[in-house]
Task: structure prediction
Amino acid sequence: MRIPEVVHRGVILLCQNKVGQMPKGTPEWATRLRSPRAHVDRVATLVTAITTRRGDLQRNSPGPEPCTIVNFPMNDQPQRKLIIAIDGPAGAGKSTIASRLARKLGYVNLESGAMYRALALKAIDKDASLDDEAALVKLAQESRIQLEPTLGGNRTLLDSRDVSSRIRERDVTEAASRVSVHPGVRAWMVAHQREMGAGGGVVMEGRDIGTKVFPDADLKIFLDADPVVREQRRMQQQKIKGEVAANLAADLRERDRRDRTRAASPLMAAADAVVIDSTKLNEDEVLAWVEQLVSRLKK
Ligand code: DC
Result:
């Protein structure tokens, strides 16, 4: 029996009302209820429900003591895998929140900006003009850009080459901002991003996820912060000071300006997005807020 069937049919194994500590002889499917994390949470919720509705239970007791197999009458639907969009300007903390949230939910974190960066890198490598929309679209069509979530963070592959670090460098960052203004490039990106997230179970971050890529996303967050605070966060992240830091601040402001003023899908909060201003909040506080929003959806 596969885990989702077990959980959705409401048949679970209770071990002294605790999930975990499965004794020897526990059926294989029941031991697997312990992972992944999402299922454990689900089972824990059921256990609570069961303990409060003990009278309704129909018991079989084929399980090895002290476990009991319980058929729990549920009308519950299989848990839907959500699409969560996190948009906002650079330095607002999107990447950290998106990756921590995805890890907690057992979802995939897709960083759409990495795709624009990968295309920008290809344009640099091929000496293509960053103003030539048709050439950039052709380049995109000829490219294979993959986002690969791994335990150590997301990897970006361009034509099977790992470019995860290279795309964070200053020239690529600047070029990514320029390639992203072209409607043709955006259309190509959006089509691929929709394919990647279509099955749900994703936290996708970017600039237009809630407005264009997934306008029907289950949850849309627009994460913002005061520009000066965003600049300071970036400087601390990169441990830079002086002239280098001043250059970074200037770059960030210019990218912000370009993102917000471009004609195609400018950076803006979707009308139904929850706007979180993280100026005075730390990472844990923002994450707690977002998790609360997610848990409301699941009820
Ligand atoms: O999030 P980031 O800094 O890695 O994004 C790199 C560039 O790509 C950024 O200048 C804006 C652009 N971008 C975009 O236009 N739309 C997205 N969904 C993601 C990124």
The first helix runs from residue 3 to 8. The first strand starts at residue 11 and ends at 15. Residues 183 and 264 are 6 Å apart (CA to CA).
